[in-house]
Write a structure and sequence with these properties.
Blueprint: E1 3-6, H1 12-16, E2 21-24, E3 27-33, H2 48-65, E4 73-80, H3 86-97, E5 103-108, E6 119-126
Parallel strand pairs: 4-5
Antiparallel strand pairs: 1-2, 2-3, 3-6, 4-6
Helix pairs in contact: 2-3
C-alpha cells in the first residue's frame, strides 16, 4: 500500500521528524496542528477561538493535499492548555463540523512546544479510493 506524506512547511517538521498528514490507502491522519501563521509565528495570540480557526484552516489544507475533504473527517481531537477555554474552541470547531459531526475529544494538556499556543487540533479521515 502506498504512503503519502504531506508537509505544511512547519519549521518543526524537520526538527521533530514528522509530517503534517499521512495517507495510507483510504486513511488520512493529520497530526497535532498548532496555530502557526503562514508567515511564521503564532496566530491569534491569547484567543482560543482564533487559534482554533487557524488550526482548522491548516488541517483543511493538509486534508486537501492528501486527497481528502473536511466531509471525510471521522475523528477530531481538540487539545487545550486551559480546559476553561473549551467553549471558544468548540464554537470554532462547530462552525466547520456542525453538519459533518465527527467523533470529537476535548482534552487539556499542561503545555505545548510554544507557550503562546492555546490549542492544537488532530484529525482523521477516511476517503473513497
Amino acid at each position: 500500500m502506498s504512503r503519502q506524506l504531506v508537509s505544511s512547511g512547519s519549521y518543526l517538521e524537520p526538527v521533530i521528524g514528522f509530517s503534517r498528514a499521512v495517507r495510507v490507502g483510504s486513511t488520512v491522519v493529520v497530526g497535532g496542528t498548532a496555530p502557526i501563521k503562514a508567515e511564521g509565528g503564532t496566530a491569534a495570540i491569547g484567543d482560543a477561538y482564533g487559534q482554533t480557526r487557524r488550526c482548522l484552516e491548516i488541517v483543511a489544507k493538509a486534508l486537501n493535499d492528501a486527497g481528502a475533504r473536511l466531509e471525510d473527517v471521522t475523528r477530531t481531537r481538540i487539545i487545550l492548555t486551559d480546559i476553561s477555554l473549551w467553549k471558544d474552541a468548540a464554537r470554532a470547531h462547530a462552525e466547520v463540523f456542525s453538519t459533518i459531526r465527527p467523533v470529537t475529544t476535548l482534552m487539556q494538556v499542561s503545555a505545548f512546544v510554544d507557550p503562546d499556543w492555546l490549542v492544537e487540533i488532530e484529525a482523521e479521515a477516511v476517503v473513497d479510493e
